[in-house]
Design brief:
Order of helices and strands: HHHHHHH
Shape: elongated
Oligomer: single chain
Strand content: under 5%
């Protein structure tokens, strides 16, 4: 699994570099967009030496000017455990796909609130 993650990080990094170059962006442009002072982290991501933090995937997509749908592909490749969670949730509860995202969020928030209350942890 570690080797797969490394190989996937290399591929994702090369893909990001290609997107950046195709859009005539420099590593400095991307670093600045992401709020980094220098290009070291961008260079490490593009070379596959570092993974994109899951919390920053959308920011990275925006900085590289990549369509949002690519986020799922990156999660699948770079965070396979999270992808497996998505896959499990959808395959065991296919009606989720019939709902609008806002409805899913509302339902989850309500359910979580009920469970917290049930266990005396309600805020």
């Amino acid at each position: 699994m570690v080797e797969d993650k490394f190989a996937n990080a290399l591929v994702a990094g090369a893909l990001l570099k290609s997107y950046r170059e195709k859009r005539n962006l420099s590593q400095s442009d991307v670093a600045q967009q992401l709020g980094y002072r220098n290009v070291n982290f961008i260079s490490m991501i593009e070379s596959g030496k570092s993974n994109i933090p899951i919390a920053r995937i959308i920011d990275v997509l925006n900085a590289y000017q990549i369509e949002a749908e690519m986020a799922l592909a990156l999660v699948k490749k770079l965070q396979p455990e999270i992808w497996q969670l998505f896959k499990h949730m959808i395959t065991t509860n296919p009606e989720l796909l019939k709902k609008k995202f806002g409805e899913i969020e509302d339902d989850l928030d309500k359910k979580f609130g009920r469970v917290l209350k049930e266990y005396g942890l309600g805020v």
